[in-house]
Amino acid sequence: MLTLVPGCSSDEPDPLVVLGPWTGKEGEAFEATLKTLDDGTGREYTYEGTRSLRETLVSQLEADAPPDVAILNSIGELTEYARRGKLRPLAPEAAERAYKPWAPMLLVDNRQRTYWVPLKVDLKSLVWSKEGTPDGDPRWCVGLGSQATSGWPGTDWIEDILLHRAGHDVYEEWATGRLEWSAAPVKDAWTTWSRLLGDRSRASVERSLTTSYDGASEDGQPLGLLDSPGFDCTHEHQSAFIRYVYAGEDVSVEPSARFLGGPPEYRSAFEVAGDMAAVFSDDPAAQELVERLSGPAGRERWRAAAEPEVRPLFPHTAGLPPAPSATPVERKIDSLLTSPEQTLCFDASDVMPPELRDAFHRAVLEFFRTPTTERRDSLLRQLETVRVQMNENSGGDPSFRPPEDICAGPRG
Predict the structure, then answer these.
(1) Is 2-122+272-325 assigned to CATH 3.40.190.10?
(2) Burial 126-138 (b: 16+ CB within 10 A, else e)
(3) Which portions of the sequence form the region Disordered (predicted)?
(4) What is the pLDDT of residues 234-244, one digit of tens each?
(5) Non-local CB neighbours of 327 within 8 Å, separated by 6+ positions
(6) Which residues is 252 bridged to in the sheet?
(7) CA 179, 185, 191, 195 torsion: positive or negative?
């Protein structure tokens, strides 16, 4: 926790509390941004960074002590908080930057309003390899562990496969609870993932299940899966953020589409994620802070404060050209993210209600251990039961469902 702008008297307002997902170098860069950001309010900021974001926020809400601003990557969670009256609609200045697919408008109390805005984004449909790696059959690195939500690297695989083999219309229907989990395109995505990974020994499976997505540690530092002991692999399917573990190395990155076997017309689709800021308090200074953080000046300060390996990526509409010191990898990712020809679709599991998302994470771990048709069908039946329950809980009220428009062009 860091309190910024020291010194206050007894009649000064309490510091604004910002809760976010960034720790380590990412957290330091964001704290430095807050420290240098002139928001015009004269307020202090307290930043709380945690990898257990949902658990921390739920605990604070239950104690009736929410942060003023929280930064989340889950549209499903944000929808839940909005419909429960925990979020405040954004002021017009920030709402203008809340474009699809990261921040579609939400229907709450029969009114269409904007409740969050992306601060930074990531491109997910990427494959990494070492420079000079033969362009033959890839041996895939897989690390499914995570501190809070193990399994999401596997759900990213299945989402990306479905997007590129079935197209963004089917992807949207599935992600937003309008397509059954037993549907043929969904089954195909799970089977394709198993086929692409190939036969794996029991030791290899257990290693993947217990190793973090950012690899085995070396002297307490993350070590990419391409470099990790025991991982005899040539390619890694992972989001743009993973570049931080390969800083200074000769790595290549390319779109994942050519590895997934989908038709050519779906190759211009990309899965994306985002870290979105939402206001939980009635303090006008919280709205002003979000407006400044999401604007060009705030983003320039943030990028300047971050080391190259954790430098944030921004949506093109309110983004910046690549930094003068950007690496070739950084420039390649930025060009893919901001190309007007691309269709960008938000991470499907982060659109789903939290209960369904968590069940999806667990199911992927079980399927990875036992990738049989029987096990797949059993897991999909379980996930379909959760989907039906979520839809029934909505009672037909669209306010209780995630937004259906989660794919758009980068300028949309």
Answers:
(1) yes
(2) bbbbbeeeeeeeb
(3) 389-412
(4) 999 999 999 99
(5) 308
(6) 129
(7) negative
pLDDT digits (tens, 9 = 90+) for 212-237: 998 876 676 778 999 988 889 999 99
Residue-by-residue DSSP string for 199-252 = ---HHHHHHHHHSBTT---BTTB---GGGSTT---SEEE--GGGGGGGTTS-EE
Asked whether the predicted pLDDT for residue 268 surpasses 70, the reply is: yes
Q: How many other CB atoms are there within 10 angstroms of residue 250's CB atom? A: 10
Q: What tokens were used for 138?
A: 């890839």
Measured CA to CA in angstroms, residue 76 lies from 8, 214, 346 at distances of 38, 25, 11
Query: What letter would DSSP give residue 321?
Result: P
> Is residue 3 over pLDDT 60?
no
CB 64 within 8 A of CB 90: no
- Spatial distance between the Cα atoms of 264 and 258, rounded to a whole number of angstroms: 9
> Domain extents for the chain?
2-122+272-325
Model pLDDT for residues 129-178, shown as the tens digit of each residue: 999 998 888 999 999 998 778 999 999 999 999 999 999 999 999 999 99
Q: What angle do CA 40, 44, 49 make, to 5 degrees?
A: 120
Residue 104, amino acid:
P
Closest CA relative to residue 163, chosen from 269, 258, 268, 264: 269
